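Weekly structure sync, notes
Attendees: PL, DS, HV (note-taker this week)

Item 1: GTP cyclohydrolase 1 type 2 homolog
DS walked through the input record. Source organism listed as Tetzosporium hominis. Sequence as pasted into the shared doc:
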Amino acid sequence: MNGHRVIELFEQWAKPALAMDGDPIGLHIGALNKSISRVLVTLDVTKEVVQEAIDEQCELILAHHPPIYRKLSAIDTSTPQGRLIEKCIKQDIAVYAAHTNLDIAQGGVNDMLSDKLQLNDVKVLTQTYSEPMMKLAVFTPESHADTMREALATAGAGELGDYEQCSYSLKGTGRFRPTSEADPYIGEAGKLEVVDEEKIEVVFPKSSTSRIVKAMLKVHPYEEVAYDLYAMDLQANEHGLGRIGKVEPMTLKEFSQHVKSQLNVPFVRVTGDLDAPVKKVAVIGGDGNKYIRDAKRAGADVLVTGDMYFHTAQDAETMGLMIVDPGHHVESVMKEGTVQYMTNLMQGEKNAPQFIASKLSTEPFKLI
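Item 1 (cont.): predicted structure, written out as tokens:
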């Protein structure tokens, strides 16, 4: 599969528009205009990970943490970063980064962490993005109505909250007269044709417009398709950083042991009374220092996040918010999670590449 198509499919999930301002997502090294048969999914791009990609014969590395976070004034191959870039280019390995857009995406990193922690009734912690909705109304012969509804649903139209394949149909009569230049599916040139038709209406996020219209045109039998597109005041599902949900009541000590076990880390840092009850949990992958007030306002008893600063932990303690810090590296859940998601998404795609989770740990810290 062409690399541009691989990323096009991936970005249907982790939309670039979801990324926070200034986050350097996207293609970092190499080119996508080539055939991709194997993709290595990793948290970080290190020299060891690049060698793993070479050994696994991968043409593309899909990373969570951008390898080039700040703009470079030069690629100095005498530096570690320069040598890493040089090695990727020489081996023709492209590197693509999906950072906060993968954090925020439904089913992304924060949802993966919520699932690991067995949270229930999970909601977005801090809204960062909402997308306007569009409505498509297409007029199709009754004989093709079911095919049209199926094609639109497959393309992602008609998803409303916890419901999918939502549509509305209205039966009516279509009239048209083909000219001598036409090649009609139904009717004859110069003769007025009357056809039993259905008007099918579906809604979808604005960013999906091109995909939805393409799917509609592909299955519609007419040479010239009659359809309408409407912008709506309705907003799509909220997207945002972090998640908040409920757990079975337990003490902070018990919950800390739960986090340690579920996220497979050697230790966690904890603030608060170890005997205090925990019922409502906020979670933010990576560095969540900025979001302690959001977690408190949302009613969280405890915030699970990494890289907690000393003074921020004190501030959280003062406001009555407990902290469980399992480290930044727990975001590595994205490796297996992304492989599973993309493998499922690629089903039915011609020449779909194989997605492989990196077996290497990029955790820089060791416990002594």
